[in-house]
Design goal:
Elements (H helix, E strand, L loop, with lengths): L5 E8 L2 H11 L4 E4 L3 E6 L2 E7 L9 E4 L2 E4 L2 E6 L1 H13 L6 E6 L7 E7 L5 E7 L9
Parallel strand pairs: 1-4, 7-10
Antiparallel strand pairs: 1-7, 2-3, 3-4, 5-6, 8-9, 9-10
InterPro entries: Glyas_Bleomycin-R_OHBP_Dase, Glyas_Fos-R_dOase_dom, VOC_core
Organism: Nitrospirillum amazonense
Protein name: VOC domain-containing protein
């Protein structure tokens, strides 16, 4: 049986404590990595990420991560490493504009991953990512 890609969804929240109570406690989604601005949850093997939005009147469309302005909400897939690399190459060769160019996060650390962000023609933000070791998708 071929393993299917895992779904990834990032969404805005106004309170990370409330998000942890709802997703972590009520829905019993194990928590993965986190920062003061976001929390990963394991939703039945799929990665969902609550991004803190400080001011509902401010730009709700971006959250700072690793020095980049990550579009929120966004969705995407967690691909196998070679598939992610091939997709990044195909998009570059096609002249696709990126919101965030393909790069490696957490290099040499737990959860090392390749990631890239782009918009579809309707302005929907997508993230495609891949983990060096898929068993560490939710590792802290």
């Amino acid at each position: 049986m071929t393993q299917r890609p895992r779904f990834h969804l990032a969404f805005p929240v106004h309170d990370l404590t409330a998000a942890r109570a709802f997703y972590g406690d009520l829905l019993e989604c194990p928590e993965g990595r986190s920062s003061p601005e976001w929390v990963d949850f394991d939703l039945y093997g799929h990665q969902i990420v609550a991004h803190l939005v400080h001011d509902q009147g401010a730009d709700r469309n971006h959250n700072p991560v690793d020095g980049h302005e990550v579009p929120v909400p966004h969705f995407g897939l967690i691909l196998a490493w070679d598939d992610w690399t091939a997709l990044a190459d195909r998009l570059r060769n096609a002249g696709q504009a990126f919101v965030i160019e393909p790069y490696i996060r957490f290099k040499g650390q737990v959860g090392e991953q390749g990631t890239m962000f782009l918009y579809d023609p309707s302005g929907n933000a997508l993230e495609f990512k891949a983990f060096r070791d898929e068993s560490l998708i939710f590792a802290k």
